[in-house]
Structure formats: C-alpha cells, structure tokens
Design a protein that fits this description.
- The protein has 167 residues and is mainly alpha-helical.
- The protein has one domain: dinb family like domain (Four Helix Bundle (Hemerythrin (Met), subunit A), Up-down Bundle), CATH 1.20.120.450.
- The protein is 60% helix and 4% strand.
- It has eight helices and two strands, in the order H-H-H-H-H-H-H-E-E-H.
- Strands 1-2 form a two-stranded antiparallel sheet.
- Helix 1 runs antiparallel to helix 7, helix 1 runs parallel beside helix 8 and helix 3 runs parallel beside helix 7.
- The radius of gyration is 16 Å and the shape is globular.
C-alpha cells in the first residue's frame, strides 16, 4: 500500500499550484498533458484494481465519467488513444482529478488491506474488459509500474512547462 501512497503523493506534488491552463497544456506536438497523463493513470488503476477486487469500477459506480464529461465506458482508460485523441482530452479541473485519484488510492487500500491474501498472488485473473489473463501478482506489478511511469511523466511535463525549480 505504501507504493500506491507514494504514487498518490507524486501526483499531488505535480498538481501543487498548477493552473487549469497548465493542466491541459501540451509541452510540444504529440506530447501528453498533465491532465491526460493523470486521468489515464487513475482510470487504469481503477479498472485493474476493480477487476481484481471483483467490484464495479468507481468510474461507473460513482459517476466520475460525468465529472470528466466522458462516456461511461468500462474500457476507456486512454490506452490506445491516438495523439489527436489525447490532445483533445480536456481535464475538468485540478481538484476533480485529485479527488478521483484519492478515491482510487482508497480502493487500492481496501483491496490490499482487506481482500488480498498471500495465496491470491499466484491466482490467474482475467480482465473482463480486455480478456487478457495474468496472475494477480503480475497485474499488481504492472499497475505499480504504470503508476510510477505516468506520475514521473506528469512531473517531467510540469518541469517542461514551469522550468527549473518547480519542486
């Protein structure tokens, strides 16, 4: 759980003092925005953790899709977006993204602290959304890896936008 908390702390740090314009600013052609990167990170975590926990995605259950002006599509996480689709994504506002991310970190905590057991790690888990099969351990490692990658990418984009010394 410490790892999910660290990813969350990185996301919170990237958002400190960020304007709505900066949230949706592309630092260059075909570059993803901070808003898209953190939405994609959070959507992917929500989908994967919800599937592993056997729960409805928060995206649907809590109607986050409406707050993001998106469709209630279980599979739409940004994976496979073209550069044009990613560029067209407009994040609602900083607090909405952070609230959604915090809710997904809580979901991770509930799953890890209350549902996951040592023996679960070897269990094969199929994604009902994409149909791929992997062990729970492998899926969790993928979620963690993706989380650090996208949080780091968002921090890098912030550095490109704000320049040196933003941290």
């Amino acid at each position: 759980m410490d790892i999910f908390d660290r990813i969350g702390a990185q996301v919170e740090q990237v958002f400190e003092g960020l304007t709505s314009e900066e949230l949706n600013q592309q630092p260059g052609p075909y570059a993803n925005t901070i808003g898209w990167l953190t939405w994609h990170l959070t959507r992917s975590h929500d989908r994967n953790l919800s599937e592993l926990a056997g729960r409805e995605q928060l995206w649907i259950k809590d109607k986050w899709y409406a707050r993001f002006d998106r469709q209630p599509d279980l599979g739409e996480t940004g994976a496979g977006h073209s550069p044009e689709e990613a560029a067209a994504f407009k994040a609602p506002d900083e607090e909405t993204i952070l609230e959604y991310h915090r809710a997904v970190v809580e979901l991770a905590g509930d799953y890890i602290n209350n549902r996951l057991s040592e023996t679960d790690l070897d269990r094969e888990a199929e994604s009902p959304t994409f149909g791929n099969v992997a062990t729970v351990e492998r899926r969790l490692l993928g979620i963690i890896s993706e989380g650090f990658q996208h949080a780091g990418q968002a921090a890098y984009v912030r550095g490109l936008i704000k320049g040196r010394g933003w941290r």
